[in-house]
Amino acid sequence: MENITLGYALCGSFCTMRNSVDALKELSKFNIKIKPIMSDIVYKTDTRFGKAQDFIEEIEDICKEKIIRKISDAEPIGPKNLLDIIVVSPCTGNTLAKIALGITDTPVTMAVKAHLRNEKPVVLGIATNDALGAGAKNIGLLSNAKNIYFVPFRQDDPFSKHNSLVCDFSLIPKTVEKALKGEQIQPVII
Questions:
Q1: Secondary structure (H, E, C), the chain
Q2: Rounded to two decimals, what is the model's pTM?
Q3: Which of 26, 110, 127, 135 could form a disulfide with 13, with the two C-beta atoms 3.0–4.6 Å apart?
């Protein structure tokens, strides 16, 4: 994994933001360029899990790039062929559904759509409370889609949150490596 440009997109699973940023730090240890992308809700929202501005500053420091935070700034990713691969982590159920249905109304979904037009890999690190409920069909659709790869995931709290799935953020670098070769890391369900 050298000399590539990786897009790293973050969506609003606020309780997993720290895990995602830690995975981003691991990726930054490789000889790669990273372009950060953030959904509007993450860019603007302070939660009990952290302040938006703190995350913004940390991510921009890790990537040495300004965050792509507008749809208009994400759109050139496709026509200018800016990325070799894109990671969406955390990928919420909302974003998962939009990607599955081709909806491009956020900087993250626009970045994915624009990137897919170049037939290059997209890695999804899901974190959603409804993955085994209404979101299951979207995982199924995307599992069968070309150029979509999943970070291995598991139920995070099967007794209290029956439908919730979260990826293993520590496996993002290995998933990226495999996806760059056109392979899905296995097992995908851990």
A1: CCCCEEEEEECCCHHHHHHHHHHHHHHCCCCCEEEEEECHHHHHCCECCECHHHHHHHHHHHHCCCCECCHHHHHHHCCCCCCCEEEEEEECHHHHHHHHHCCCCCHHHHHHHHHHCCCCCEEEEEEECCCCCCCHHHHHHHHCCCCEEECCEEECCCCCCCCCEEECHHHHHHHHHHHHCCCCCCCCEC
A2: 0.96
A3: 127
